[in-house]
Amino acid sequence: MPMRDFPELQPNDTHNQTLGRHVAPQDWVNPTPDGRYHLVVIGAGTAGLVTAAGAAGLGAKVALIESRMMGGDCLNVGCVPSKGILSAARAAAAVQGAETFGVRVPRGVEVDFGAAMERMRRLRAGISPHDSATRFSELGIDVYFGQGKFVSGGIDVNGQRLDYRHAVIATGARASAPPINGLEKVDYLTNETLFSLTELPKRLGIIGAGPIGCEMAQAFARFGSEVYLVESAPGILPREDRDAAEIVEQALKDDGVHLLCCGKNLTLSPVDRGGVRLQVDSHGRYDVTVDQLLVAVGRAPNIEKLDLKEVGVDHTPKGVVVNDRLQTTNPRIYAAGDVCSPYQFTHAADFMARIVIGNTLFKGRSKVSKLVIPWSTYTQPEIAHVGLSEHEAQEKGIAIDTFKQPLDGVDRAILDGKTAGFVKIHVAQGKDRILGATIVADKAGDLISEITMAMTHGLGLKQIGSTIHPYPTQADAIRKVGDLYNRTRLTPTVQGLMQRWLRWTR
Q1: CB neighbours (10 Å) of residue 362?
Q2: Which residues make Cβ contacts (< 8 Å) with residue 260, sequence separation at least 6?
Q3: CA-CA distance, 67 to 390, in Å (whole number)?
Q4: What is the pLDDT of residue 495?
Q5: Rg (CA), the chain
Q6: Strand positions, DSSP E, 429-498
Q7: What is residue 273's predicted lDDT score, i.e. its pLDDT?
Q8: Which pTM does this prediction carry?
Q9: Which of 79, 100, 252, 492 has a CA that sits 20 to 30 A from residue 233's CA?
Q10: In angstroms, rounded to a whole number, what is the distance separating the alpha carbons of residues 115 and 117?
Q11: Cα within 13 Å of Cα(221), Cβ side
Q12: In the CATH hierarchy, which top-level class contains the domain 183-297?
């Protein structure tokens, strides 16, 4: 398994060498199969790792197969490296904005992009033992490196046959660029190669204003790149609440990102020294040349080499077909994570894996539809969302009441200078049962968990409003939304009764 097969492990410094030893050890010797496994898990990303570790911890005999690198996207080319460089970009922005707090930086801000990326690689390598082949072997799991594929009655990996009671497909998904005129003629980055950069591109083009595109656009603009963000839709983050997306859109513009929304007739062509010419209609004709191009849109499931037809597992271009219990069309085979889920998040894969463990090993009946799945986009401010949005409620004909607390009415947000945002919570009309929420705030991804827990365990907005929150915190905004609901309970009838009581007891 030579390092050159993994662009994710470039540059070949000590940190990436450490990462490689943990997640793709070149001297690894696959074990010899010994009898039937309770579970054979194909894919060692989040879903596969959680399934394998959880099942082995319960006493099951488990095999884990990985064709590339343990840890999957999250550790190697996703959550971990992206948040590593986002934290560096936030630090740069904090220094740049320090003067508004009375803190003067004499020489301005100079970002050492190479040092920021080196820090990310060092921290990623430090996290990698948690997902390492050695650790999972020590948990009692038979770890195999190679391409797993289904054969009649078993799974083949490098010529070895593994027999199983149940198999779990957890092979994830990968970047897959959509059809773009001229894309095949130019060099471009995806999330799988972006984090191998060692030099800051003077000009960076990004196609796609979803979470990855927006996060990286803001980060690289803060590092000092001139960023052009192209999106075919009218605005950024099309899955989000429009009020929320507009706040983040303004934040990107404030950081210097050139936003080319409603982008039509996009054409790419190569220029000298590896650059890319980008031509697009966006409220006018743009014609710019960038040093690097990031394609941040498009995903494809990793299923081509599994021979799913051999075992009767149905699939579509979006992934493996599963029922509500994550069972495929072959009752002995289940799937979890990005390979079968519309929610392509690490935390969703984690909890899908937990469902698979119970349903395969103990004939459980747990359903993925019962999961309450939040998500967060880690721009600054962040957007976090859970449950229904206003638009979804309207589409489904669900009557809701909406309560909104702007952050400019929250003392801690005012004192922190972070008043661009809000907490918006939707409840069933006339009731306090929470159906969904959106938060825009500096730590929205942390704040949304309170709402998610309430929804998961049936706590209403009334209970949130009666829960003491520390003052001053941004989380107090959530309690204030509870207060907004409680005020609606003070109807004219109730108010009249209270006034009569107070007059009588005076």
Answers
A1: 10
A2: 228, 229, 230, 231, 280, 282, 286
A3: 42
A4: 78
A5: 25
A6: 434-441
A7: 82
A8: 0.94
A9: 79
A10: 5
A11: 22
A12: alpha beta
